[in-house]
Amino acid sequence: xxxxxxxxxxxxxxxxxxxxxxxxxxxxxxxxxxxxxxxxxxxxxxxxxxxxxxxxxxxxxxxxxxxxxxxxxxxxxxxxxxxxxxxxxxxxxxxxxxxxxxxxxxxxxxxxxxxxxxxxxxxxxxxxxxxxxxxxxxxxxxxxxxxxxxxxxxxxxxxxxxxxxxxxxxxxxxxxxxxxxxxxxxxxxxxxxxxxxxxxxxxxxxxxxxxxxxxxxxxxxxxxxxxxxxxxxxxxxxxxxxxxxxxxxxxxxxxxxxxxxxxxxxxxxxxxxxxxxxxxxxxxxxxxxxxxxxxxxxxxxxxxxxxxxxxxxxxxxxxxxx
Amino acid sequence: xxxxxxxxxxxxxxxxxxxxxxxxxxxxxxxxxxxxxxxxxxxxxxxxxxxxxxxxxxxxxxxxxxxxxxxxxxxxxxxxxxxxxxxxxxxxxxxxxxxxxxxxxxxxxxxxxxxxxxxxxxxxxxxxxxxxxxxxxxxxxxxxxxxxxxxxxxxxxxxxxxxxxxxxxxxxxxxxxxxxxxxxxxxxxxxxxxxxxxxxxxxxxxxxxxxxxxxxxxxxxxxxxxxxxxxxxxxxxxxxxxxxxxxxxxxxxxxx
Amino acid sequence: xxxxxxxxxxxxxxxxxxxxxxxxxxxxxxxxxxxxxxxxxxxxxxxxxxxxxxxxxxxxxxxxxxxxxxxxxxxxxxxxxxxxxxxxxxxxxxxxxxxxxxxxxxxxxxxxxxxxxxxxxxxxxxxxxxxxxxxxxxxxxxxxxxxxxxxxxxxxxxxxxxxxxxxxxxxxxxxxxxxxxxxxxxxxxxxxxxxxxxxxxxxxxxxxxxxxxxxxxxxxxxxxxxxxxxxxxxxxxxxxxxxxxxxxxxxxxxxxxxxxxxxxxxxxxxxxxxxxxxxxxxxxxxxxxxxxxxxx
Lengths: 322, 256, 296
What we know:
The complex is a heterotrimer of chains A (322), B (256) and C (296). Chain A has helices at 3-30, 38-53, 74-95, 102-122, 124-127, 145-171, 173-184, 186-191, 196-222, 233-245, 250-267, 272-275, 278-299. With 322 residues, chain A is mostly helical. Chain A is globular and about 65 Å long. Chain B starts with 8 loop residues before the first strand and ends with a helix. The model of chain B has no long low-confidence stretch (mean pLDDT 89). Chain C contains 12 helices and 2 strands. The longest helix of chain C is centred in the first third of the chain and has 31 residues, at 2-32. Chain C is globular. Chain C starts with a helix and ends with a helix. Classes of the chains: A mainly alpha (322), B alpha/beta (256), C mainly alpha (296).
């Protein structure tokens, strides 16, 4: 145990955080959709994965009440998690379609996330209410513990590689350019012939797919998931990775995730007074997160590694870079 | 329907009411193909409202709009733009984080890279189209003298340069009718003249223009037909020289 | 039926507090054009300040004005030190909302770090129960309703009868125009934040009084019903916010009484979403606040 286990945890969290932050960056950083409800698509993925891989709810004496319970193999469940994220993301996107000022839309989506948390917590039959789900099977449980752990890291790494490949398709090239135009001025984008409504929904579906996959991978590792894990403040964690790292830049937000998820949140554990009291370290983590977000909005809103646009140097037949 | 001599734009009895205020109250006029038509009138006459409604930014309370023979009254803004009805804004709206040349590229219609196939298949699919678009954009930049600003983020441009970017962007869309909302505003006299020359050349090449402008000398030089609006209605139509001596028009400007 | 009437009574009491908070929120938005999500954490701050005083034997009804003053001052400083400068640098509205969320998070977890995460209580504050008009209310609830009504009346007189009030309304409606009329908009801003912050603080203590127990999530829980009430009434309209508060409060309680009480909070959320989608200017929203709502 000890250091090796800690490294595994760190890597799995880093990988799942990257997927979620990439999705949120696509929505908010690149396309300008301030989805403060993002954590809900992560939760949707987690729950979908759970009810796909768990057995029927009557198992284990029926102490958990939930829908589904399909005992599906984990690759199918991962896809289901991603799909659930995409669907929920699109539904949330529909609430943001009314032409309201951006901050109102943001608050509306925040409220939607709270509403969904309340609904899921209150209805005990859906996903076991506020207690949440547990005993979610680990796909590599049949292997010895060390191989099991590192297999999971490999799984997360593979998903990240695939995710990055897909992500770049959307954040670069003509579509990346169009989405950023929509972010800068969606009325002018409309006037330039872009179907802004369709673009927004597509972005929220794709971003949702990333979030759903993130949630599914995380819950497969942890084995449990409850509404307290997805309070609205969790979106702030991802938002700060985007803002601190570099909004709109894939490299930037990846660096931001590394800095925040790994260095800050985990590094705080090493301060002696804090390490002794687990609750306090979490409190400090949130304070640092909130503080970092504000500091960057004040001093460097473009983030640590700002977005860079491709250059079209004068060549006779050009091939745009980036 | 599209016989080359029919008007490119027909506005029929267009109305826009905001509560009790009648910003437009039964406005009708045509824009002939390949012409530069002016829209003038004192402040509050409803000229900008007219452009906003024709461009699809504001839904009219009543009336119809026919573009190229097709009724577009219910068409959303982006569809009108794709069909060639393009508007520029009073305050030039550029995409600030994109470079100047990207501002042009983004407006090109029918980009393969924006479609599902283009996203899935990647660069191979849209690479050559992109190359052509870049060449077209570079030509435009050369025409407007902004080649050296190609890679500059558009938010760093001056007011006049942003105005030029807007017009270039509109031209990338291969428009049939350009709605220009006070294009000379904030430009120095020499820049204004340059812009006038460009607009005249465009009209010669077949582009139709509907121009809202306050500088009556500019209107006189550029426009064939001029429509005068006051208090939400069309007051008169004709050549600028006729309108200058028209009593009603003079009164409208005094009363405002 | 009796259950419904009882819940109406409850709804009026909670509605009064929601209205109180909503009015403060509305005034803040009117003057600053910012959706200040930190408002929730500030209410929590007030509740805990009150707790500090109550644990030293101070009456809850004294703690209320003290909490109001504390949060009023904190709000002015908060705007001066963080919000106003950010706006001056051209920070876009979404980034402002994120800032207020972040600041609220910091404040909330500072409170947790100091006071601990467990539930707190002001103890028995209700006093005797009273019956009238078929409603059953405790003394405490009646005091709060009366207090809210008095504060609303005071605010009304301030806004309509005093020069300051007129200056506040003018700045709220059109800041640039107000400044060119010689109004010191920064002074008016400070005073507006002081007043709305005081209402926020009063609401925080009032919430702690009316709830059996609370923890660090108190403000956050009630913020959304308050925003719903403010937007329902028409953002920037204090009277609308008051009415909105009553509507949200009563409908929530009645809904909880006739169906699953776990779903009580849903009513406020649903009202907010529906209003934003169907009629964003709410019941009494006027031109200027509506124009600010719709995209520029």
